[in-house]
Design brief:
By secondary structure, the chain is mainly α. 66% of the residues lie in helices and 5% in strands. It contains six helices and two strands. It has a two-stranded antiparallel ribbon. Helix 4 packs across helix 6. It is elongated and about 45 Å long. The protein starts with 6 loop residues before the first helix and ends in a 7-residue tail after the last helix.
Length: 129
């Protein structure tokens, strides 16, 4: 069930997952801070994500991923963690490794990412597989 989703939407879903793992809950302000975007940008994006069935809001305004949203967020977040680990294993600074992983995590073809995972596993480069 491959669906077309824009990189910005993937970034939002991934951020929601990361915040949820760290804090246990997700508010719009947390997403704005995580992505360094304005609150109106978050309001617009989360409205679209909700309309598309990727997230829900509870009565307190907390954001949750739907099953579909979680599937997409998990895929992107795994790519982010694996790529960050590999770049760090190559000697890249932690901050730069994470930034560069963010830049390419959306654009890799599944075949390329699978090959990277296989190589990383064979060489013990990541714990995130």
């Amino acid at each position: 069930m491959a669906m077309e989703i824009h990189q910005s939407a993937e970034d939002y879903l991934e951020a929601i997952l990361m915040i949820k793992e760290k804090k246990g809950y997700v508010r719009s302000i947390d997403v704005a801070n995580q992505l360094s975007v304005s609150k109106p940008s978050v309001s617009y994006a989360t409205k679209r994500l909700r309309e598309n069935g990727y997230i829900t809001f509870n009565e307190d305004g907390m954001i949750s991923l739907t099953e579909t949203g979680m599937t997409i967020a998990s895929k992107i977040y795994k790519r982010h963690k694996v790529l960050t680990d590999i770049f760090k294993a190559l000697g890249v600074d932690d901050k730069i490794a994470a930034e560069d992983a963010c830049k390419i995590e959306h654009d890799l073809e599944p075949e390329t990412f699978d090959a990277i995972c296989k190589y990383a596993e064979e060489h013990g480069l990541t714990t995130n597989l």
